[in-house]
Amino acid sequence: MRSLFMKVLFVLVAFTAVAFGQAAPANRTASDAKSRPLGQALANPALTAADTPILSLPYTPGLETEFMDKSADPCVDFYQYSCGGWMKKNSIPADQPSWGVYGKLAQDNQRFLWGILDDLARNPSGRNPNQQKIGDYFAACMDEAGVEKLGANPLKPPLDQINGMMSKKQLPALLAQIHLRTEGNGMFFGFGSNQDYGDSTQVIAFASAGGLGLPDRDYYTKSDPKSVELRQKYLLHVQRMLELLGDLPDAAQRESAGIMAVETALAKASLTRVERREPHNLYHKVDLTQLQALTPGFDWSSYLKETGLGQPDTFNVTEPAFYRELDHQLQTASLDDIKNYLRWHTVHSAAPFLSAGFVNADFDFFGKTLRGVPQLRARWKRCVGLVDRQLGEALGQEFVSRTFSPEMKQRTLTMTNQIEQAMTADIGQLTWMGPETKQNALTKLHAVVNKIGYPDKWRDYTSVAISRDDFSGNAERAAVFESKRRLNKIGKPVDRGEWSMTPPTVNAYYSSRMNDINFPAGVLQPPLYDPKMDDAPNYGNTGGTIGHELTHGFDDQGRKFDAQGNLKDWWTARDDQDFEARAQCVVDQYARYVVVDEIKINSKLTEGEDIADLGGLILAWMAWKDQTKNTHLQNRDGLTPEQRFFVGNAQWACENDRPENLRMNAITDPHSPGKYRVNGLVVNLPEFEKAFACKPGQPMVKENRCRIW
Ligand SMILES: [Zn+2]
Question: What is the largest CA-CA distance in the chain?
Fold first, then answer.
């Protein structure tokens, strides 16, 4: 992945169709929307300019000299030189944990999608079935007064079910229902489907670790004062949510302590994020009898029956030690402990769909305390985000038809092919890799499938009923649809056309099981890809992203899967050792960088992303050099073409961050902070040293350079 935005489920931007040629018209087009009033949002004088829908996106060029700080020395701090102006001009909005080029683009996209959804919500006539669903979902979500009036009522049926449990024997069937309603959100554990690591043509059931309310197991185990303080605040938050359900303060306090004890035990039995980077640590294939033996106190047959799966007989238990502890917890906990745990996680996962008391309490802890965000996002942003999350490919069709032309798709495909050719050449000339491994690497490289823009076949939402006056019901039905869609894949042929990001997303990814790279339409827009700009910044920026995703197939994790996406060693022992030694160079380099205060980068966690960043930039450079080899390139804006390549690359990563958010990212984010995603790369490139005439001994010139791909 290029950024962590996927996690936040941001929605993306459209640039105007003019620059890319007109996209195929949808039933409703952007110009339809233009002729319609956008309603109260525009009429309300209390709203700021940023709180209005937009009909086309503001253009930001792919290389902006105003975003640079030319008073900084590029050989001393290249990030400051490339991004200093951007950081000065773009303070963090009150509702954001951080602010960067990707986040800004995502917010512009959100405003564009808002216009589409607002129109579909207000003008029901002539909508096609998908437009009815996203329009009415949005209308129901925006009906704040209706949501307020209901208060905690939407929680009554699930809470009655939990309170009505007479014995622990009823837990498996009940938990299956809850998992379906919460998209396998991990109450006690996670359950879903995935490709078999050993045979990527098969989809099998995956039982994974889960059960936590805090974002990572480390939050429960770290003993530094900040972590201890945060756990105290979390306890108070759980207590507050239980009180919102009507529990008396004393009882809620006692109950939250019991919940914390269960979560802490599960956290301690969970692998760390670094341990989870090793796929062998997560691959334990068992049959139903073996699964049942792992958790004698939990009846899997009744759980599976309730999911509608019947009796599958192949499971990957990603973390067996976790399941042994889970069984211990379920056996020793009282029925009341279990009910309290379920009640807390039910209100926690439903909070975004409930009245203001729940929304605000949830934000106070997970936004303010955990990430330092002062202000809750406006309702329209949350609603656009939820449509993208729950009906993403229906919304994505509207986005693509307005913003993503066949020309744009072709351009990106051409650049992708060039980056792949660069990697072919690069592998051929590696000095540390033997011929046998090289052959296998090339076979894998040539098998990578390039998916650009949007899926060839759209997801069918026909069976999801969406009504314009039932927000929480819509959310539940959409969640059950998605849970069942995932589970129904078990035992069926793998759908290689499937996407796991929605088209408006400002991000991209590589899948080691599919052996494919995926670029949503949302990330292929200015300023990341700018058709008006010269090649240098475009190759530096989007070329670097393509190279980044491609290199993931060959990073510490991806290299363990073969061309077919199977977990299979294709390395000679010597080449394996050489790779590890070269990767260690990157790990050692990033381990020295400070994230915030006393916290340094956990570079075993960021290893794959750091390797992908470095490989991506080298491949983009090679592809750009090849593309322009017979062209006389001009200086522009006082920069040489080579300098434009590097500044163009750096300007994707400009960002400002809140210290609280940096603390969280240091634990949970496999990406290094933006500053090091720029400076950490260029120090390793002699091409950079030459482009800016840096001298040995300067900070941006590293003595012992790291180089893998
Ligand atoms: Zn990545």
Answer: 79
**Residue 2 CA, ligand 1 centroid: distance in Å:** 4
Contact 476, 156 (CB under 8 A): no
What whole-number distance in Å separates Cα of residue 564 and Cα of residue 447? 8
Specify the pLDDT at position 51. 77
CB atoms within 10 A of CB 153: 11
Q: What is the mean pLDDT of residues 236-251?
A: 98
Which of 549, 607, 609, 669 is an active site residue?
Answer: 549
Quote the tokens at residue 622: 């090679």
Measured in angstroms, how far is the CA atom of residue 552 from the centroid of ligand 1? Answer: 7
Nearest to 112 by CA among 390, 501, 403, 375: 403
Note if 613 is an active site residue.
Answer: yes
pLDDT of residue 589 exceeding 90, the answer is yes
Q: Strand 203-208 and strand 315-317: pairing?
A: parallel
508 alpha carbon – ligand 1 mean position (Å): 8
- Cβ-contact 150, 356 below 8 angstroms: no
* Closest C-alpha among 597, 581, 574 to residue 657: 597
**Beta-carbon count within 10 A of 581 CB:** 11
The rounded Å distance from CA 606 to ligand 1 centre is 9
| Model confidence at 464: pLDDT above 80 | yes
Ligand 1 centroid distance, CA of 549 (Å): 6
Which residues surround the ion ligand 1 when the cut-off is CB under 5 Å?
1, 609, 612
Distance CA 619, CA 621 (A): 5
pTM here is 0.92
Residue among 603, 616, 611, 675 at smallest CA distance from 645 = 616
Residue among 398, 613, 657, 669 flagged as catalytic: 613
Assign 311 a pLDDT band (cuts: 50, 70, 90).
Answer: confident
How does pLDDT run across 655-699, given as a tens digit for each residue?
999 999 999 999 999 999 999 999 999 999 999 999 999 999 999
549 flagged as catalytic: yes
Q: Which among 669, 661, 681, 75 is positioned nearest to 373, based on CA atoms?
A: 661
Cβ contacts of 247 within 8 Å, gap of 6 or more = 255
Cβ proximity of 590 and 676 under 8 Å: yes
Token readout for 403 is 């913003």
Q: Using CB atoms within 10 A of its CB, is residue 259 exposed (0-12), middle (13-18) or buried (19+)?
A: buried
Rounded to an integer, what distance in angstroms lies between the CA atom of residue 652 and that of residue 648? 7
User: Contact 590/596 with Cβ under 8 angstroms?
Assistant: no
Asked if 198 and 285 count as a contact pair (C-beta separation under 8 A), the reply is yes
* Dihedral pair phi/psi, residue 138, rounded to 5°: -65, -45
**Total number of residues shown for the chain:** 709
Are 545 and 652 in contact by the 8 Å Cβ rule? The answer is yes
C-alpha count within 13 angstroms, C-beta hemisphere, residue 329:
24
